Amino acid sequence: MAQNSGTVLLLMWVYMMYMTGVELAGMAGNYANLLFMLTLIFCGILVKPDALPGFWTFMYRVSPFTYLVGAILSTGLAGAHVRCADIELLHFDPTPGNTCKEYMKSFIQTSMGYLTNPDATEACAYCPLDTADGFLRSFGIKYEDQFQRRVHE
C-alpha cells in the first residue's frame, strides 16, 4: 500500500488546486464549499449512479469528485482481501448429501463471496465479499480506471 501513497497525494494536490485562481480568500472558501457540497452529493458514493433521477445522472458524470473518489478508493482498496466478522456471515444448510461447496458451486462462480467452511455438510457460512474489488464494482469503480474513470452501465 505504501506505493499508492504518492498517487493519493497527487490526486489530493490536484483537487485542491481548483480554488487557487480566486483572488479573495473568503470568496474562494464560499465557492469551494458550494462546489464541495454539490460534488459530494453527486459523486456516486452517497447515492449510487443508477439510483439518481435522469437529469442528476448528468451531475454524476460532470462532478470532478466522482473521479477523485473513484481514483482514491481504487488506489487504496483494490485487491484488498475482505474477511467477514461472524455477525456478517450468512448461515444456511445445504441440500442433504451435499457439502457447502457442492451446493453453492454455480453461485460462487458468479458471485463475489466465499464460503468459510466449504467441506461442511451443515451450517454453511458465506461471506458476500472476498475482495474489496466487489465492493468497488458495486459503485462502478475499477482499479484499471484509476486515472481515467469511465462510467460503466
Walk me through this protein's architecture.
By secondary structure, the chain is mostly helical. It has two domains: 2-79 and 141-145, no CATH class; 86-127, no CATH class. Helix content is 45%, strand content 6%. A three-stranded antiparallel sheet has the order 1-3-2, with helices on one face. Strand 2 and strand 3 form a beta hairpin. It is elongated, with a radius of gyration of 21 Å. The protein starts with a helix and ends in a 16-residue tail after the last helix. Keywords: Membrane, Transmembrane, Transmembrane helix.
What's this entry about, in short?
Keywords: Membrane, Transmembrane, Transmembrane helix. By secondary structure, the protein is mainly α.
* Unreliable residue stretches: 149-153
Please state the structural category: mainly alpha
Largest sheet data: 3 strands, antiparallel
Mean pLDDT score? 81
Overall, the morphology is elongated
> Strand sequence of the main sheet, in spatial order?
1-3-2
Individual helix count: 6
Total domain units:
2
Number of beta strands? 3
Portion in strands: 5-15%
In helices, the fraction of residues equals: 40-55%
Order of helices and strands: HHHHEHEEH
Protein name: Putative Pleiotropic ABC efflux transporter of multiple drugs
Membrane topology: Multi-pass membrane protein
Main location: membrane
GO molecular function: ABC-type transporter activity
